[in-house]
Amino acid sequence: MSHKITLKVNGKTVTREVAADRLLVQLLREDLALTGTHVGCDTGQCGACTVHLNGRAVKACTMLALQAEGTEITTIEGLAAPNGEMHPMQAAFKECHGLQCGFCTPGMVMSAVDLVQHHSCGSEHEIRAGLEGNMCRCTGYQNIVRAVQLGAQGMK
Q: Whole-prediction pTM value?
């Protein structure tokens, strides 16, 4: 059985028929072709699927699309300015080489933006603790921490 839902994704109103068991990450990737939201583990452990729901970071692989009815979702594709200028956190990840293979990067950036907007993140320890729900299998996180510090400065 399918259900009609309406939500706002990256500033655009979207209406879709979805099955009751359809995950938000499936809606974003498969139905809306927003493939920057990655699926890494299907269990909410890696954070690659992190998006913003009503301005707060959530893992899209642990949420049903039906639960997003009436909400506003921002994906990595919607983080940049309409003219294509990167968000300060995206620019900081590029500047600080806070990525290697890039698989975790969209979720890491989305979590980092949430961390800066809603939590204390001045010290390296606070940043590492704030990002512990996001796993990077390529780095030692040092460049990611620097990127978050630089991104936070750009977001002020």
A: 0.94
